[in-house]
Design brief:
The protein is an alpha/beta fold. Helices cover 38% and strands 22% of the residues. Helix 5 (121-130) runs parallel beside helix 6 (151-162) and helix 6 runs antiparallel to helix 14 (433-452). 6-O-phosphono-beta-D-glucopyranose is lined by residues 175, 213, 232.
Length: 495
C-alpha cells in the first residue's frame, strides 16, 4: 500500500545517497509503495538547484527505469543547501517541509534520514526539535553507522538523539540486516528441527564467520584510517551476525523478543583481558600484491592514508560465549579488505562421531552447514556417504542449494527493504541501542588490548586471505578455516 511521508535527507550529495538511497527509493516508487503522497527534501552544504539535484538523481538510477517514470519520480525531489549548525537554515527547511507536506498530502509523516558523519547527529536532532520541525504525524529518525567511535561517544550520541526521539522512532541502520540471507538465519535455525536440536555445544565444534571483501579502501581513506576493520565491520555487522547465530529461541518472532535475545547473547560474549586479545585476535593490513596480471597497491599507498599507517584492514579473532548453550565453542570471525574473493559466509562445523566405524584412512569428514550470504545466496550441507563401487569407502557429499540468479536479482536490495521497513515503522531489522552498547563494550576491550599489547599489524599481500597468523589462530586450537578460496588461485599460479 502506498506510504505517505515526507523524507528529509541530510547528506543528499553523498556517495551513499547516490549509490543506494535514490535507487532504492525509485524501486519503492516502481512498486507503488511510494506513489503520489511523498516528497524528498535533500540537504547538504553544496549550493545545488532543484534541477541539478533531479539530474543527479536521474543519473544515479542508471538504467533501472524508463525516462518518463524517472522524470515523474524526480519531480518529487527538492534540494535545500544547508549548514547543519545554522539555525536559520532550519527555519527555511521547516517552511519547505510544511509546503511540501501540504502539496503532496504526506499526512504530516516525516522521516529524517541522516546519511552523514555522526558528529552532526546531535546538532541536527536538537535543531529539529528547537526549530519545531517535528510534525504531528510520525517522526522517524534513520541513522547510518558509525554510531560513535567507542562506548563513551556512542552513549553521548545516544543521549543527544534520545532527547528528541524515543527509541522506537530511531532506526539505526546495519545494512547487513536487510540482506536476504541474513534474514534467513532465523529460518534455518527456527524452522528446522534438525538444526535447532543440534544448535549447541553438544553437537557444534566451532562456528566460522567470514566477511571478505575484494575491494580495497577505495576513496574512504579519511574515514577508514580512524575506524579500521574492527570498528568498521566487527562492531556492527559481524557481531550482529554472531548474535543472530547464537541467540536463544525467542518466544515470538517479533522485534522486541528477538532484540531481547540478541542483547542477552551479546552480554554473554566474553570480554577479553588485554593479554587475551594478543592470543585470540590477529590484525592485518594489505600490502601490495597481485592476482593473475592484476596488480594492487598497498593500503599505505592509497589516497588519504598515512604512509606509515598502523590501521588494520583485516581482523580475525575468536569469541567465546559464556552461557550453557555455547560454553567451549569458539566463534571464529574474520573480515578484511583486498582479500582473495568477495564473500560473506558462515560455516557451522559439527563435532565428529565418537567412533569411526568405517576406519576411514583420513578420518571421517565433519558435517558442515554453510550459509552463503553473498554474492551467491544459499546453503550447503557437507555429509558423509558411501562411494559407489565394490569397496566400502566413505566420502564427503555436498547437498547444495542456491537461490536462483533470477530470484536474487529481482529480490529487493538491502536498502530498499530497510527504507520500506522504516516507512512502515517496523524495527525488526534495525539495531537497538542496547545492542549497540553491548557491541561497543566488546570491541572497546579488544581495542584496549590491541593498544596495551602493542599488537602487530601483520602485512598480507593484497588478494591473500589475510596474514599467516590468521591461519595459525585456528591451527593452535586444532581447527582450520573451512573457506579457503585462495587455494584455487594458488593451484593455478595466479596468487
Ligand atoms: C560497510 C563498511 O558498512 O560495509 C564498508 O563501512 C564495507 O567498509 C561494506 O565495504 C560492505 O558491505 P557490502 O554490502 O558491500 O558487503
Amino acid at each position: 500500500m502506498e506510504k505517505s511521508a515526507l523524507i528529509i535527507l541530510f547528506g543528499a550529495t553523498g556517495d551513499l545517497a547516490q549509490r543506494k538511497l535514490y535507487p532504492s527509493l525509485f524501486r519503492l516508487f516502481q512498486k507503488k509503495e511510494l506513489n503520489q503522497h511523498f516528497a524528498v527534501i535533500g540537504t547538504a552544504r553544496r549550493p545545488w538547484t532543484d534541477e541539478h539535484f533531479r539530474q543527479v538523481i536521474s543519473e544515479s538510477l542508471g538504467d533501472i527505469g524508463e525516462k518518463a517514470e524517472v522524470d515523474e519520480f524526480a519531480q518529487h525531489f527538492y534540494y535545500q543547501s544547508h549548514n547543519v549548525n545554522d539555525s536559520e537554515h532550519y527555519v527555511t527547511l521547516k517552511k519547505l517541509a510544511e509546503k511540501l507536506n501540504q502539496q503532496y498530502q504526506c499526512d504530516s509523516n516525516y522521516l529524517y534520514y541522516l546519511a552523514m558523519a555522526p558528529q552532526f547527529f546531535g546538532t541536527i536532532t536538537q535543531h529539529l526539535k528547537s526549530e519545531e520541525i517535528l510534525a504531528p504525524g510520525f517522526n522517524r529518525l534513520v541513522i547510518e553507522k558509525p554510531f560513535g567511535t567507542d562506548l563513551k561517544s556512542a552513549e553521548q550520541l545516544n543521549e543527544e538523539i534520545r532527547a528528541v526521539f524515543p527509541e522506537k522512532e530511531i532506526f539505526r541502520i546495519d545494512h547487513y540486516l536487510g540482506k536476504e540471507m541474513i534474514q534467513n538465519i532465523a529460518a534455518v535455525r527456527f524452522a528446522n528441527p534438525l538444526f535447532e536440536k543440534l544448535w549447541n555445544r553438544d553437537s557444534i565444534e566451532n562456528v566460522q564467520i567470514t566477511f571478505a571483501e575484494e575491494l580495497g579502501v577505495e576513496n574512504r581513506g579519511n574515514y577508514y584510517e580512524h575506524a579500521g576493520a574492527l570498528k568498521d565491520m566487527v562492531q556492527n555487522h559481524v557481531l550482529q551476525v554472531l548474535a543472530l547465530l547464537a541467540m536463544e529461541v525467542p518466544t515470538r518472532f517479533a522485534p522486541e523478543e528477538i532484540r531481547a535475545e540478541k542483547v542477552k547473547v551479546l552480554s554473554a560474549v566474553k570480554i577479553l583481558e588485554p593479554k587475551e586479545v594478543a592470543e585470540d585476535f590477529v590484525f592485518g593490513q594489505y600490502d601490495s600484491g597481485h592476482l593473475g596480471d592484476n596488480q594492487f597497491l598497498a593500503y599505505r599507498q592509497e589516497e588519504n592514508v598515512a604512509p606509515d599507517s598502523q590501521t588494520e584492514t583485516f581482523v580475525a579473532g575468536k569469541f567465546s560465549i559464556d552461557n550453557y548453550r555455547w560454553a567451549g565453542v569458539p566463534f571464529y570471525i574474520r573480515t578484511g579488505k583486498r582479500l582473495t574473493e568477495r564473500g560473506t559466509r558462515i560455516n557451522i562445523v559439527f563435532k565428529n562421531l565418537p567412533v569411526d566405524l568405517f576406519q576411514t584412512t583420513a578420518g571421517l569428514g565433519q558435517n558442515i552447514l554453510t550459509i552463503y550470504i553473498q554474492p551467491t545466496e544459499g546453503f550447503s550441507l557437507l555429509m558423509n556417504g558411501k562411494e559407489i563401487g565394490p569397496e566400502y569407502l566413505i566420502r564427503p557429499i555436498k547437498l547444495d542449494y542456491r537461490n536462483s540468479e533470477e530470484l536474487t536479482s529481482n529480490s529487493p536490495e538491502a536498502y530498499e527493504k530497510l527504507l520500506l521497513d522504516a516507512l512502515n515503522g517496523d524495527s525488526m531489522n534495525f539495531t537497538h541501542w542496547d545492542e549497540v552498547a553491548q557491541s561497543w563494550r566488546i570491541v572497546d576491550a579488544i581495542k584496549e588490548g590491541f593498544i596495551e599489547n602493542n599488537c602487530p599489524v601483520n602485512l598480507y599481500p593484497a588478494r591473500a586471505m589475510g596474514p599467516e597468523a590468521s591461519f595459525e589462530l585456528l591451527e593452535k586450537d586444532g581447527h582450520q578455516w573451512i573457506w579457503q578460496p585462495e587455494q584455487w588461485y594458488q593451484e593455478r599460479n595466479l596468487l
